[in-house]
UniProtKB/TrEMBL annotation:
It comes from Candidatus Avacidaminococcus intestinavium. InterPro entries: Isochorismatase-like_sf, Isochorismatase_Nicotinamidase. Keywords: Hydrolase. This is Nicotinamidase. GO terms for molecular function: hydrolase activity. Belongs to the isochorismatase family.
């Protein structure tokens, strides 16, 4: 059922891709007729989240990835398209320590929460664009979205932890060759002044500076429309409490306005995603579980990968 090169125990290992070996196995697999009309949407299944020891490792993510790889191999005949998002960051962004200082010139520790009031009271100050940073914090709080969290540096463009988890990289390469359809990659998270949990849009799309409006992103409607053209859209990735949750919420917001029945096209592979561990005052696992329950009530299928 699985290619000879695939070894489940490699899910937590870093290694170079074996392109030629994979290509040979694709030839041997011999596609049977036409492909199905399903898509697989993989959200941020990167080394920075899935490799034990990584700065923002999500516990259990390496096992999620192994199950996802096996899902791909079992369903290679039905998967017409694989789309992967890649969380993509730089040093000086509003959610990184380097962007902030206190009165002593110290940077905040990872997982520090910074509020609008903190900046007004001079507890923390941005190194640049104070007015825009304040507007960002104000909008977050008014919308009751996630508070600004200082995340550990992670998935920096050009770094090892930006790449797909190696075992998964091989699986999507295999599927691209088998389906004659290249994997599509979407970079997200590059804006300096906003977080970007959802693949569809950043947390804030417009900031205000005096009488000026400054665009810092837009909603990726083309992505949603592309996904909904498929018969079924399987969704997996990390983390279920953040980027997966936010992305599905955005897709469902579009579906609600256009065709609520389309929610039934979405299949969340619940055993191929895990939440960020709980922090003081933030029970992320509970948030993830509540989100899955909420999605199911809209018609989304919350399933186990082994059902397919």
């Amino acid at each position: 059922m699985y290619p000879n090169f695939y070894k489940q125990e490699a899910a937590a290992q870093l290694f170079l891709p074996r392109y030629e070996l994979i290509a040979q196995e694709v030839v041997a697999a011999k596609r049977q007729g036409d492909l199905g009309r399903d898509a697989l949407f993989i959200i941020d299944a990167q080394v920075g989240f899935c490799m034990p020891g990584a700065n923002l490792y999500v516990p259990g993510a390496e096992n999620d990835v192994a199950r996802l790889c096996e899902f791909i191999y079992r369903n290679k005949q039905s998967l017409a398209k694989v789309i992967c998002s890649l969380d993509t960051h730089y040093v000086y962004q509003i959610f990184h320590s380097a962007y902030w200082r206190n009165e002593k010139g110290e940077m905040p520790e990872p997982y520090t929460i910074i509020t609008y009031e903190d900046v007004i009271e001079n507890k923390w100050q941005p190194i640049a664009n104070r007015e825009l940073a304040l507007d960002y914090l104000r909008q977050l709080e008014e919308a009751s979205k996630y508070q600004l969290c200082i995340w550990p540096y992670h998935t920096m463009l050009g770094s090892v932890d930006h790449a797909l988890q190696p075992i998964l990289s091989e699986s999507v390469f295999y599927q691209a060759l088998f389906s004659n359809s290249p994997t599509e990659f979407i970079l997200k998270g590059e804006e300096v002044l906003t977080e970007n949990y959802s693949v569809c849009a950043p947390e804030v799309t417009v900031l205000h500076q005096q009488d000026k409006k400054i665009a810092v992103g837009e909603f990726n409607m083309a992505l949603v429309e592309k996904l909904l053209k498929y018969d079924r859209v399987f969704i997996a990735g990390e983390a279920s409490s953040h980027c997966v949750k936010a992305t599905v919420e955005d897709i469902l917001a579009v579906i609600k306005k256009t065709d609520p029945r389309a929610a039934s096209k979405l299949y969340l592979l619940a055993d191929c995603m895990s939440p960020v561990p709980a922090l003081p005052g933030a029970d992320f696992p509970q948030m993830a579980e509540e989100a899955l329950q909420k999605f199911a009530k809209t018609g989304v299928h919350v399933v186990c990968s082994k059902e397919f």
